[in-house]
Amino acid sequence: MRNGKSVIVLLYAAASLAGQTAEVTGTAKLRNGTPLNGVRITVKNKDAVLVTTATNTEGVYEAQAVFGTVSVVCEAESEDQPYARNRLSYDVEVTPNSNPGKQDCMFDRVTIAQDYWQQVGKFLVEMAAHVSNKALFFAKEWKEIDASGLPPDAKAVAARQLGKLDSSITDRTFTDYQKVDEPTLTRALKGDGKAASTLPGTVKQDVIHYNASKN
After folding, report:
1. What is the CATH number of domain 20-107?
2. Distance between CA 112 and CA 152 in Å, rounded?
3. Which of 89, 93, 135, 156 has its CA 20 to 30 A from that of 7?
4. What is the pLDDT of residue 18?
5. CA dihedral sign of residues 178, 165, 158, 140
């Protein structure tokens, strides 16, 4: 009798699954919340391309997928403004209980403009209003910025702006970037070895790697 019940459950689950179309949706945007139109979205199952689509004027995309783990690859046009990393890839788990799968694509603009990072701060404050642990939220945002591939001078501006929003972030890279001297960092990025030697440890390592990547 137990085996009979198991078969019925499996058949019911298969029937439910057969009636669903797996999908993945999300929004492509800058970290300041600006939606990006025309971002190319490619959904893959391992190495097989399932579908290629693009975001609409509101930065939203919808694409068919398969149940299981799929890869979502986001690529934006960047002739007018460079992005720190312009081929973003995410693994998304799509199940009958989490269908459609959700995955946003967050692009980081390469800039040291204060107004842009102030916009980022304003958007993050709006986002943080919907989470219970704001300190964890801001710490996660810094982790993403730190790993984004932004040049050190842009990360320094970002760290100072985030520090105004939440002073509880204890990540060493964050605290190093907060206290870095901007003129010294600028000279170091231009190849001044003496200036680089006086930078906080994690910033100095970033500058070394960044300058090496340009050669």
Report:
1. 2.60.40.10
2. 10
3. 93
4. 54
5. positive
CA triple 203-209-211, angle to 5 deg: 100
Are 108 and 150 in contact by the 8 Å Cβ rule? The answer is: yes
pLDDT in tens, 17-68: 555 799 999 999 999 999 999 999 999 998 899 999 999 999 999 999 999 9
Q: Among residues 159, 166, 162, which one has the least CA distance to residue 185?
A: 159
What would the pLDDT profile of 105-132 be if each residue is shown by its tens digit? Answer: 999 999 999 999 999 999 999 999 999 9
Q: Is the dihedral of CA 161, 33, 72, 49 positive or negative?
A: negative
Domains of the chain by residue range: 20-107, 114-214
* Cβ neighbours around 50 below 10 Å, total: 16
Percent of the chain's residues with pLDDT above 90: 83
151 preceded by a cis bond (ω within 30 of 0)? no
